[in-house]
């Protein structure tokens, strides 16, 4: 799960990390009020869940409250297109109005999980304000790392080591150490999967302040982070993905026209792959979970078919614990109930597979049965291809 | 012979009185697995299907000497359950639970360091030695005893692969699900090491997916040390970047962890990769036939 910059900064503040003065505004008038409170030059920043806002014109400097109001008016309601939003862009519904800072230097710091070591890791780079993926690509040696032992947390010497390697001045070392230890606590205490400050600025008067903040969260940890869960912005998410997850289904929309419903994440990915191999384009990833019941199948069909691009559906179930005849019954009932009007190929394999296929045939529904994954993929690609 | 588990493995179920724990404990017992004990705090002194239930793992260990434990405990309590089993010195701890917070697993991994337990999972189907011992949620009947080792990050995709192998007459020595989470116990390399040393295993199927770089590391290890043929498959060639594909660990981040990169690394190590998920069994068969001809 992702949150907005202004929300991330509010969380940082709770962990005693200094942030720029400022507030979120949802209307141009509010933006003017905040700018007046701040006094002097301020920055108006579009709040969307995507990077690259600066280059896309989503971050602007305002010298007066009137200017802040004007910029907010331009940004609010506008679809901002960055390299991360896709061509359709994201509508700006809020802006963050912050004090302008006299920047002396920009660096990069982050806390992430090192998957190969199964430990958290603090990253730092003297190259702040640019995309870290670019730095990693071109000059990986510029990314400094400190692996953290979860038994003791980030140690002060690790923070000092990073500070000196970044070439910080002596009086900036202490502030960096305490900032990093705060970030590490945020990461562990809030079940984050990423805390990224890019850039962390060193101001002309020697302070270290996060100019931007990005936080992602481990969905598995949300059950014990109700405050974080409440920060989810449904406008930023695909409505079908949200609906599916509330039903315990895992759904991700793609660009193709063949809807698929599969049990198990690995098999679901493999099913998308085989559709592509057969010359088709999958419309989605949908994992109905290990125990696919009639209700879940019905819900899954509804979500699939609400995507108007879907011109055919492939159901691929490997019945393990769930028996295929039970699943077949569920598919037949669901297909009847919601009247599936597009070609429907069903492949049932595993426990009671034959019985399941028999139920499909006897249903007199226009279900195209298939025995193997390959056959199923070929049949659905053909069925969709033949349609006018 | 096989790896990890066999007919003699004595199994404890943690979370035996929950619906999942009950269902699968019964199924494993029916398969022939030696289910010796169960643990649910507060239910000690009762029994389930003639299996004695204890309040704590240490009590169960003292009374029944299990050498493997399977955890079906819900996500908020799963890490604690794993560490309880590790503390009690159980050799193999298998966590089936899906949805364990990643930071909990970071602490679990740290806790297991220097202790003798081997951890499998979480978010995995478990392990099976066909005809000998089944621990976990996989359907037992699709497996056949034989000489192919299977190691995979996925559940149902593994069943698909096993089914293909069985239909082609290729039985399995053991099938290990290492799980779909970013922080997990045993990985590909540890499983491959065991298969490499297992006289009953002739060849290995390795099934990976997008996210992380375990497959790349495994490919490198295979090139250097593996004495037996391996074939691979990677799921998620069509997965978009930045999206979590069902499994917590299946995500392409910062352009890393793509199926393309993994397939290239595996091929570079001289390992045949099934071009389609429907050809996993067939690819294995061809590799074995090719060896016979030589």
Attribute tags:
heterodimer, A: 388 residues, alpha+beta, six-stranded antiparallel β-sheet, four-stranded antiparallel β-sheet, 13 helices, 18 strands, 25% strand, B: 294 residues, alpha/beta, seven-stranded mixed β-sheet, six-stranded mixed β-sheet, 35% helix
Describe, in plain words, how this protein is organized in 3D.
- The complex is a heterodimer of chains A (388) and B (294).
- With 388 residues, chain A is α+β, with helices and mostly antiparallel strands.
- Chain A is 37% helix and 25% strand.
- Chain A is built from 13 helices and 18 strands.
- The longest helix of chain A has 20 residues, at 170-189.
- In chain A, 48% of the residues are buried.
- The model of chain B has no long low-confidence stretch (mean pLDDT 94).
- The two termini of chain B are 27 Å apart.
- At the A-B interface, α4, α9 and α13 of A face α4 and α5 of B.
Largest interface (CB within 8 Å) is between:
A-B, 55 and 62 residues
Return the string of H and E elements of chain B.
EHEEEHEHEHEEEEHEHEHEHH
Tell me the span between the first and last alpha carbons of chain A.
40 Å
* Helix coverage percent of chain B: 25-40%
Q: Structural class given helices, strands, pairing of chain B?
A: alpha/beta
This entry's quaternary arrangement is heterodimer
Low-confidence stretches of chain A: none
**pLDDT averaged over residues of chain A:** 90
Helices of chain B, by number, come to: 9
- Using the CA coordinates, give the radius of gyration of chain B: 19 Å
Task: Give me the side-by-side strand order of the main sheet of chain B.
Answer: 3-4-2-1-5-6-7
Helix content of chain A: 25-40%
Mean pLDDT of chain B: 94
Largest sheet of chain A, described in full? 6 strands, antiparallel
Major sheet description of chain B? 7 strands, mixed
Query: Total number of β-strand segments of chain A?
Result: 18
State the distance separating the first and last CA atoms of chain B.
27 Å
What global shape of chain B is seen? Answer: globular
Q: Tell me the β content of chain B.
A: 15-25%
């Amino acid at each position: 799960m992702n949150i907005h910059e202004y929300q991330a900064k509010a969380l940082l503040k709770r962990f005693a990390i200094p942030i720029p003065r400022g507030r979120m505004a949802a209307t141009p008038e509010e933006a003017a009020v905040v700018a007046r409170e701040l006094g002097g030059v301020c920055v108006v920043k579009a709040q969307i869940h995507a990077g690259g806002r600066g280059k896309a014109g989503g971050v602007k400097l305002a010298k007066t409250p009137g200017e802040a109001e004007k910029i907010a008016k331009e940004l609010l309601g506008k679809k901002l297109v960055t390299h991360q939003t896709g061509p359709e862009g994201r509508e700006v519904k809020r802006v963050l109005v912050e004090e302008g800072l006299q920047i002396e230097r920009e660096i990069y710091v982050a806390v992430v999980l090192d998957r190969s070591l199964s430990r958290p890791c603090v990253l730092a780079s003297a190259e702040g304000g640019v995309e870290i993926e670019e730095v990693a690509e071109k000059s990986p040696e510029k990314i400094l790392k400190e692996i953290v032992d979860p038994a003791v947390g980030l140690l002060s010497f690790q923070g000092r080591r990073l500070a000196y390697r970044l070439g910080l001045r002596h009086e900036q070392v202490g502030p960096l150490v305490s900032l990093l230890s705060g970030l590490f606590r945020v990461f562990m205490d809030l079940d984050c999967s990423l805390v990224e400050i890019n850039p962390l600025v060193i101001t002309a008067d020697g302070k270290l302040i996060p100019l931007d903040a990005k936080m992602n969260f481990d969905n598995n940890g949300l059950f014990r982070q109700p405050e974080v869960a409440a920060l989810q912005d449904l406008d930023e998410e695909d409505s079908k993905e949200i609906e599916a997850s509330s039903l315990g289904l895992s759904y991700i929309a793609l660009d193709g026209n063949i809807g698929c419903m599969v049990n198990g994440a690995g098999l679901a990915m493999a099913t998308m792959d085989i559709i592509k191999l057969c010359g088709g384009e999958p419309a989605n990833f949908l994992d109905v979970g290990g125990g696919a019941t009639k209700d879940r199948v019905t819900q899954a069909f509804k979500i699939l078919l609400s995507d108007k691009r879907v011109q055919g559906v492939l159901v691929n179930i490997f019945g393990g614990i769930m028996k295929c005849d039970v699943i077949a019954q569920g598919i037949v009932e669901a297909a009847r109930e919601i009247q599936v009007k597009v070609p429907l190929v069903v492949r049932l394999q595993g426990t009671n597979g034959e019985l399941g296929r028999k139920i499909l045939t006897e249903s007199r529904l226009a279900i195209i049965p298939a025995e193997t994954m390959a056959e199923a993929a070929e049949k659905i690609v053909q069925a969709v291809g033949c349609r006018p | 012979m096989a790896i990890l588990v066999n007919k003699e493995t004595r199994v404890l179920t943690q979370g035996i009185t929950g619906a999942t724990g009950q269902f699968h404990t019964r199924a494993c017992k029916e398969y022939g697995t030696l289910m010796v004990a169960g643990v649910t705090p507060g239910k000690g002194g009762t029994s389930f299907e003639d299996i004695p239930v204890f309040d704590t793992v240490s009590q169960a260990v003292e009374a029944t000497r299990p050498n493997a434990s399977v955890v079906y405990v819900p996500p908020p309590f799963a890490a604690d359950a794993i560490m309880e089993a590790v503390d009690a010195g159980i050799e193999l701890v298998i966590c089936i639970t899906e949805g364990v917070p990643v930071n909990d697993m970071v602490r679990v991994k740290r806790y297991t360091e220097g202790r003798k337990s081997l951890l499998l999972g979480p978010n995995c189907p478990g392990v099976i030695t066909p005809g000998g011992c089944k621990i976990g949620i996989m359907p037992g009947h699709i497996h056949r005893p034989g000489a192919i080792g299977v190691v995979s990050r996925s559940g149902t995709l593994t069943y698909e692969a096993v089914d293909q192998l069985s239909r082609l007459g290729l039985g399995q020595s053991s099938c290990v699900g290492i799980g779909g989470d970013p922080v997990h116990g045993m990985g590909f390399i540890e499983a491959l090491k065991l298969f490499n040393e297992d006289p009953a295993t002739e060849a290995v199927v390795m099934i990976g997916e997008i996210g992380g770089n375990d497959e790349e590391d495994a490919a490198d290890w295979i090139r250097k040390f593996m004495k037996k043929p391996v074939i691979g498959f990677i799921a998620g060639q069509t997965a978009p970047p930045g999206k979590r594909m069902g499994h917590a660990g299946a995500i392409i981040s910062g352009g890393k962890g793509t199926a393309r990169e993994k397939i290239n690394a595996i091929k570079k190590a001289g390992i045949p990769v099934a071009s389609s998920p429907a050809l996993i069994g067939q690819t294995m068969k061809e590799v074995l036939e090719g060896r016979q001809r030589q």
